[in-house]
Amino acid sequence: MNDLPLLPGNRFSDVTCTNFIVPRTLSFKNGHRIIRLPRFGIGQTYKPNVQLTEDEREILTNFQPELIYGKVKVQEPRKFVPATVFYDKKVLRFYGYFKQTVYESPLEYYRVRRVIIYYYLEDDTISVYEIPYKNSALNQGLRVRRHRVSKNDQNESYNWRDLNIGQNLAIYGTIYRLCDCDQFTREWLESEGIELQCSELIPSDPYTLKLMEKNEIEKQRTGHSDLKDILPDLLTKQSIVGNKQFNTMDGKVLRFYAVLDDQGQQCEIMRKFIIHFYLVDHTIEIRETHQANDGYDPIGIYLHRQIVPKDSTYNIKSYVNLFINKHEQEKICYLKPEDFAIGRRITIFNRSFFLHDCDIFTKSFYHQNFGQFDFTPIDINMKRYIKPSIQLPPVPPHIMFGKPEDTIQNVKNLIPKPLKRDRIKLMENEHRVLRYEAVMESVNETDVQRKFLIVYRLADDLISVYEKPLDGYGCLTRKFLERIRIPKPGFFSVSFFYINFSCFPTLQDSHPDAPIYYGPNDFYIGARIELFKHRFVIIDADRYVLKFIEENQQQFSQHVIDSLRKKLCLNNEKDEQNILSFPTPIRRTSKSTSCLPNACITDSTFCFCGVEENSNDSCCKLNCRLCSTNFTIPSMIFDIGPLNFFPLNSFNFSELNFSFLGQR
User: Fold this and answer.
1) What top-level class would CATH report for the domain 423-574?
2) Span 15-42, pLDDT tens digits
3) Is the pTM here over 0.85, yes or no?
4) How far from 651 is each of 2, 588, 592, 630, CA to CA, in Å?
């Protein structure tokens, strides 16, 4: 069939073939697109392989396309650059204007205000800046800060494709007309395929044109007059001198280095300043040189440029100057160059400045105009100012309500604060108490027989008084005075009246506004202590008082130490004699125990073990025998000396392994 010619009537298709499906050559494998060569023809008929000749195989194996087409140029991929870096410092600038309507004005109906619109390609932000004009009395400068501006209600921001010459840009209710742009903006937009329109002229402001025409007319009127005839009449002697000074001294400034001489203030930091004296108009400017962490505000100008009078009462901005006549103002003396010199103190508005150095121009100016001057700089670090003590305002008298210390706190602080206690003193003397025995000095005979115990707390200087029971009355010790700080006699307030108690010349008088309280140095043998109109005489003291005084002799006077040492040493000798000569009185209580421990007592008649005394005048512990089981433990009180306020109740004899003769 294949050999028959292609003539009409010859059929080349197989009549028996009923399948005409085209074989599939494109498929997927493991997610990748692959191409397969067809093994069968249309209708799934076998397709014989095309056999190549040896010449064709040789051509395919030896084929080199580089010899025909050349080497393929492999382009390196561009380095990735973020848009923020690529468009950094690239800004599109447009020139435009907007019209502002003026209401209720017969001179103008609207104003034309020129603006510059900046578009930042880095982050698609826009800022609007108005070109300022002098004496316009309008809020000019930055009108819209840099940020993304929405262009519709869908919160879509303006893009650089929305900007073109001749278009209106609506930003927050103001319509800006874009009239022109710079060269960079024009080239960049054209490179992005945007065709820019022709530039437009910015219309002029009608009111500004009227002012310019008015000024030109005035210039034409005065231009025809002869200035030679007018100037001599207008110029005065003062103006001629001022013009000469301006022409010769313009730009010449004297510079002095100074420090603030604040002797009245307790300030350790030395504040340094630079004083500029302008020779053209004799004005003064002060600048402060700040140091690191000096604690002052970082403001450079301490005093703005102005003329400074020698007398600080005539301040330029003060109310005194408002009511001064012109003739009186001419009499005011202002600071001049001859008032400045190294080593002087200059008072500027009640502030004293000490000049310690100047620059080279200042030295040459003074040498040429004022002759010889001492220009040796002064070392301010070596100079020490003698600062006087601060004079505090007088404290008002005590209001007779509360303590005098509370009145002082109300004076020092607007909001009263509690007094600060000496914490170190409280911790060191927490449990230290000095006890004295005293008698009352009174005309009444019954009060003379009364004995008292004065307790002085070293932690807070509080004094409390207890009355000892009299023999035969059977009452216990009772409190006579609650703990309180007691001032020394003098002008002391009682029931809102001032009463003078100056009957003791040995004590220092105190005042209710500055009271002097009793201290440990005021208590000694024979001392008279006055406590709220009650006078006590100290006749004895605790042994711990002498121990404390000997440990802290620098806090007490010598006569206090001698009086206590003499009295307590004498009492000690008497106590030892009484204890050795008389048996110790014992009061027994019913406390059952199994046995009395092997303790030793002086007198054999009172020895519970029934053991004889040895040569050391005490019982021998080794020879003591155990007591019976029904023995009772005594409760003992030792009567040592005239002070009987150290009871020893309920001793635990099981822990005693020594003789308690004379022990407390």
Assistant:
1) mainly beta
2) 777 888 888 889 999 989 998 877 777 7
3) no
4) 144, 12, 14, 18
